Every structure is written in C-alpha cells, then in structure tokens.
Amino acid sequence: MFLVLSMAALAPAIATDAARSAAEQVIALQNGEALYVFKDGLMAKESKFGGVIHLSKGEVVQTADGKSITTAGNEVARLYVLLNEGHEN
C-alpha cells in the first residue's frame, strides 16, 4: 500500500517535469502561477493549483521579482498535454 501511495504522489511531479523539460524557461509569477516559455517563443500559464490558464493576446504578467512580461501565444493545449503526460488510464 505504501508503494501505491508513493507512486501516486510522484505522478504530479513527473507531469510537471515533462512540462518543465519541454519549456526553455519557467518563470514564477507573483500570484503563485508559472509562465512556461517554449523554445519557439510561445507561452502558456499554469495556475498555482496545477491547471492550465488561458492567456489573452499581449497579456502582461508580473514575475515573482516584480518584473513585467508581455506574453506571446496561448499554448493551452501544449501545456495541458505536457502536464497530463503519464496520467492516462
């Protein structure tokens, strides 16, 4: 039973690792969210709860250190697939 619980706890970490390795950069935002910048320059945003959030064209987000970034793209589907990798039944 312990092994099953341990594996269940690792599943979100594995999914996050897949998304983080696919991104060129992951930037922490002020509100606990994360901005993923992919190698092609397009971006996606993850909520502090691990869900994917829609980005508006040219949305300005605040980084954890107070800088502003104007977003490019809205890679909702790409991030959703990466975050859910390995969660198939």
Describe the structure in your own words:
This protein is α+β, with helices and mostly antiparallel strands and 89 residues long. The protein has a single domain, classed as Copper resistance protein K (Thrombin, subunit H). Helix content is 33%, strand content 26%. It contains two helices and six strands; from the N terminus they run H-E-E-E-E-E-E-H. The protein has helices spanning 2-22, 76-83; strands spanning 23-28, 34-38, 43-46, 52-53, 60-62, 68-70. The strands form two sheets. The protein has a four-stranded antiparallel beta sheet with strand order 1-2-3-4. Strands 5-6 form a two-stranded antiparallel sheet. Strand 5 (60-62) and strand 6 form a beta hairpin. It is globular, with a radius of gyration of 14 Å. 18% of the residues are buried. Residues 1-15 have low confidence and may be disordered.
**Tell me, what's the shape?**
globular
What CATH calls the topology is Thrombin, subunit H
- Identify the CATH class: Mainly Beta
Mean pLDDT: 82
Helical amount: 25-40%
Q: Strand fraction band?
A: 25-35%
**How many beta-strand elements?**
6
User: What is the number of independent domains?
Assistant: 1
Spatial gap, N to C terminus: 19 Å
Biggest beta-sheet profile: 4 strands, antiparallel
The number of helices is 2
Radius of gyration: 14 Å
The helix-and-strand class reads alpha+beta
Strand order of the largest sheet: 1-2-3-4
Q: List low-confidence stretches.
A: 1-15
Order of helices and strands: HEEEEEEH
| CATH level-two architecture | Beta Barrel
Oligomer: single chain
CATH superfamily: Copper resistance protein K
